[in-house]
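Attaching the record inline, Q. Sequence:
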Amino acid sequence: MGEAFQSALNVLVVEDDRELAGFVRQGLEDENCLVTVCHDGGSGLRQAELHSFDIVLLDVMLPVMDGFEVTKRLRMQKIRTPILLLTGRDAAEDVVRGLDAGADDYLTKPFDFEVLLARIRARTRVAAGRTSAQMRFADLFVDTEKREAVRGGQRLDLTRTEFSILELLMRAAGRVVTRSRIIEMVWGDREVSENNLDVFMRYLRAKVDRPEMVRLIHTERGLGYCLREGIE
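Structure, as predicted:
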């Protein structure tokens, strides 16, 4: 196995080959990554517009919208998430077209998974050095460097623990984060009960989901919590 990731990455995989997508997802999850999978370009574009990812693994030949167009639209919106194109074609004109659209790198299928991991490490290291750690979901913005959270233009007065929980939910936006995972990531080895977590979640919700606003923090009963738009 190669060098481990320095921290858990939030990865978007856009690939219409479901078997390959499943293989990549399982491999990345084994590396402790949070993985979202889409099987067409339109869905992939929507996910990349709505959520913050550390990297996008983007197939070129996709239904609805190809990888070149997805890349172009993201860059037009000033979304600078690193994009690694996955292509079955290695013709020079295709590579040039992808890079000109704004992709950061490409990998030709079939590929060795260790090579994929190496490319991801390279691109996420570069990205970490040149961008601020800003995330957005709906009208909620979080800056992990400044430790600031803003919703609807109003800054949220969060404790350090509340901010850490919110950051974890933001990084996994759209997916459930289990209660045990939150306790592990926020408190580490310290003894914290699920009742303690419930108290922190109530305080966090009161600050993030004010009465006049659409609820973003949802309870997935028996599992954990999820950041998403919509009813409970």
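The chain is about 40% helix and 20% strand. The helical segments are 18-30, 41-50, 67-76, 92-101, 113-130, 160-171, 179-187, 194-208.

More tomorrow.
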